[in-house]
Amino acid sequence: MKTVDRLVAEKLLAIKAVKLQPNNPFTWASGWKSPIYCDNRKTLAYPEVRTIIKTGLVSAIQRLYGGKIDAIAGVATGAIAQGALVADALGVPFCYVRSAPKDHGMGNLIEGQIQEGWNVVVVEDLISTGMSSLKAVAALRDAKVNVLGMVAIFTYQFPQAQKAFEEAGVTLHTLSNYTELTAEAAELDYIKAEDIEVLKEWRSNPSEWKQDK
After folding, report:
1. How far apart, in whole angstroms, are the C-alpha atoms of residue 133 and residue 73?
2. How much is the pLDDT for 171?
3. Which DSSP state fits 79?
């Protein structure tokens, strides 16, 4: 029986939510070249995968935080649906944090009902550098709620992200990660064994990888 991190990795690969192209890199919005692209929004279109992810996130939250939770907060936009599913399963209120305050109406940064002093767990879909995720945490803390931690579907395991979460004092738990996904991809012959070294090279210095080509 597969562990959760391997099962989630398998499903992400199966529905092509994660694509690996070591020899034909993607270009991220940041300008980084990357042999991997992850779009966890695709999981919402597959009921079986959606349920596996929801159940995994709910189980992690219950194991880590028990009955201390007053609300779930999703990070816009990728984790809004995931966070709402988790909040519904737990029977607690849901809110989401925008990347910037709304430029009209009430000018909200946090949408939904939230109260000062509440214990909140943040749901995210993907962790890369961690900056946008931690920006959401900062917004919640400014609203004077207690952020217990964050759960996410997948992380690239960048060292700078780990350092950023540690410095912010935020505990992160993910269902799967770059190490397990590339190992699963190799076992399933999704990529060639020799491509693993290319993927390791990229993750060690993603901002500079193939920038001269």
Report:
1. 11
2. 97
3. T
**Exposed (0-12), middle (13-18) or buried (19+): which is 1, by Cβ within 10 Å?**
exposed
Residue-wise pLDDT for 20-66, tens only, equals 888 889 998 888 899 999 999 999 999 999 999 999 999 999 999 98
- pLDDT given at position 104: 59
Residue 196: how many CB atoms within 10 A of its CB?
A: 15
Give me the helices (H) in the chain, please.
Answer: 4-14, 47-65, 80-90, 131-142, 159-168, 178-187, 195-204
pTM of the shown model: 0.92
For 114-133, give one letter per residue: b (16+ CB within 10 A) or e. beeebebbbbbbbbbbbebb
Asked whether the beta carbons of 13 and 190 are under 8 A apart, the reply is yes
User: Nearest to residue 20, comparing CAs of 7, 41, 37, 39?
Assistant: 37
The dihedrals phi and psi of 180, each to the nearest 5 degrees, come to -70, -35
Burial (0-12, 13-18, 19+ Cβ within 10 Å), 72: buried
Question: Are 150 and 172 within 8 A, CB to CB?
Answer: yes
- Per-residue pLDDT of 87-134, as tens digits, reads 999 999 999 999 876 555 545 799 998 999 999 999 999 999 899 999
Q: How many Cβ atoms are within 10 Å of 3's Cβ, its own excluded?
A: 10
